[in-house]
Amino acid sequence: MRHLISIADLTNAEIEEIFALADDAEKLRKEKPARDCIMATLFYEPSTRTRLSFESAMHRLGGGVISCADMRTSSAAKGESLADTAKVVSSYADVLVARHHWDGAVRAMAEHADVPAVNAGDGRHEHPTQTLCDLYTLRKEKGQLKGLTVVVCGDLKNGRTIHSLVYALARFGANVVTLAAAGMELPHYVVERMESEYGYSLSPLVANELSAVVTETDALYLTPKQPHQLALFTQLDRAIQLRLGTIASQLCYDAFYMTRKQKERIKEGAAAGNYPTLGDDFLRATRFKDTVVMHPLPRVDELSPELDRDKRGIYFKQAAYGVPVRMALLKFLFDQAEVGLRQPAAPSSLYRSPESLGPHCINPNCVTVTETASAQRRYEILSGGPGAALILSCVYCDHRFKVQFVGDVQAKRYCAYDISLRATVGEWLAKNELAVFNSIKEAEEAGYEPYKTSGQRVVMTDGEIQAAVTVMSSEILNECQDTDGLLLLGIRTQGSVLAQRIAAELERQNTRKYEVGEIDIYGSDEEIRRISLADPDAGPLNLRDREIVLVDDVIYTGRTIKDALSIIFRAARPRMVRLAVLIDRGHREIPVKPNFVGKHIPSSERERVRVRLRGREPGVKDEALIYSITSPSANASSLRSRKNAGQTQAAEG
Ligand code: CP
């Protein structure tokens, strides 16, 4: 039995197979391969195209359709869970097609269904069957997908069609240019996956003609196997600007994929700025004479009505392909059920906590948070995140977060995760003894005690930290050209505290207030947020053309900084980004050089440098500590032997 929840559930060859079936939709219509089959449509959110084209497709295959006109009048209104609904309805139908407002809801339904389930859109997550229609349309229009350059435009944060589409374009070797509305950039977890799974890199693109024909917005370029390493530069100098300008001028844009603002997923009052539109300038520009315009629809006012009469506007054709493509998909799924093919195996690095507490997915709209009865929290473990962090990726919604605390279930001990624990954590995972906690409180509530550390010494005292902040602040004032427009961005969490300290010191030295923001590399939908108000009525943080000082407590491999820079450049093109760190440990993997350093402390990989700052932890004074972690596995086995010895003594006694 095969489900289609994510576009990743289909291989490229299977997508081609579905397209071949769609090309022959007339034959399917005559053969009626779904005679005696029933499809159930369960739409918890409004739909015109997806629902009706699925229902039309099933009728044309000779099958029947059962549905609930409005899920608010189904037993969901009485509190029935997604799991129970899926279980019950799958005994009435041969395939379920479901849409839901929660990310991961359709995966949860598929896990309880006895027939194939198809994701017709889940929250902000994915819309894989729309992507099948999009790829099919592009291939029909352009002959092939490899090498095409597609500009995705508008609400890239909340638009689920975009997320499935960019993964698929990457898999078929197309280039992706992103033109996001302000505050609606492609989520970090999507870009991370483009980089880690598909080998794409992300660069800001100086593409003035794109901004001119759309609206004031910055372009970013996702491209395979090309050495665009802009994220590694902390300064956007003229040479880089020129190089990016050259890239932009050589690009041939094959398609614009426009999307509407997903109002239903945006908090009232948020992101109220300008929204990109495609209008007459686009139609007149010779540069775009062969650029087709696509849109998953419904549209609101992003597209000029003139486009409807222009052969480049192909969005109604794209919607019409919904029927043959979904006929082909249904035929494909029924065939798979007949030959007994199963869903590809789940990744071997899957983690399910043996403890009932953490960790929790960081996405508040994830089904594991909104309906725990239907979805058991599971994560894929991704090692080698920023700063060699241990990253968990939620199986339901793909959101990623950094593991803060790990523990051994047998020893009931925990400690903060660090690169030196990689092998030990691997052993615990293999033995199903790994516990992961979002906080110390969570670990303590589960009855865990901390592991002891050894050889701890202070490498920076309270006074030294204050002196370093003072020196770095005056260096910042000396080096920055536009100190009035300076923005301090701290990397959460210690970097944010330091950024606020530097802002206070700058204010003392220069008698004016400075804006401070925070970057959350893993852990939030809102990747950049304001943390101090220069002006109480100020809107979202503006990064464009600003001089930015990025602040963190410790730099080691440089990967955290690279990620923070990617987030900054995705949000806007600043004039310059400089880097301030309290402690530079060396061991760099990424060639990033801080502009301002409090202290250089070369140290071994097994040593951990920890900065403790007042205000973050109660009763703590500022200090930087260096220490080794006594091997938790040795600690665990000695604890176990002590426990066993105790049991033997008790038995002997
Ligand atoms: N493209 C799309 O999903 O349209 P509907 O919301 O009308 O199904």
Structure explained in plain terms:
The protein is α/β, with parallel strands linked by helices. Helices cover 34% and strands 22% of the residues. A six-stranded mixed β-sheet has the order 7-8-6-5-9-10, sandwiched between helices. Strands 22-21-20-23-24-25 form a six-stranded mixed β-sheet, with helices on both faces. Strands 2-1-3-4 form a four-stranded parallel β-sheet, sandwiched between helices. β5 (149-154), α7 (160-171) and β6 (175-180) form a beta-alpha-beta unit. The protein is globular and about 80 Å long. The protein binds phosphoric acid mono(formamide)ester (CP).
Helical segment tally? 20
What Rg is obtained from the alpha carbons, in whole angstroms? 27 Å
- Ranges where pLDDT stays below 50 over 5 or more residues in a row are 225-237, 642-653
Based on Cα principal axes, name the global outline. globular
Secondary-structure-derived class = alpha/beta
Instruction: Report the portion of residues in β strands.
Output: 15-25%
- Which compounds are bound in this model? phosphoric acid mono(formamide)ester
The side-by-side strand order for the widest beta sheet comes to 7-8-6-5-9-10
User: What is the residue-averaged pLDDT?
Assistant: 84
**C-alpha termini separation:** 58 Å
Portion in helices: 25-40%
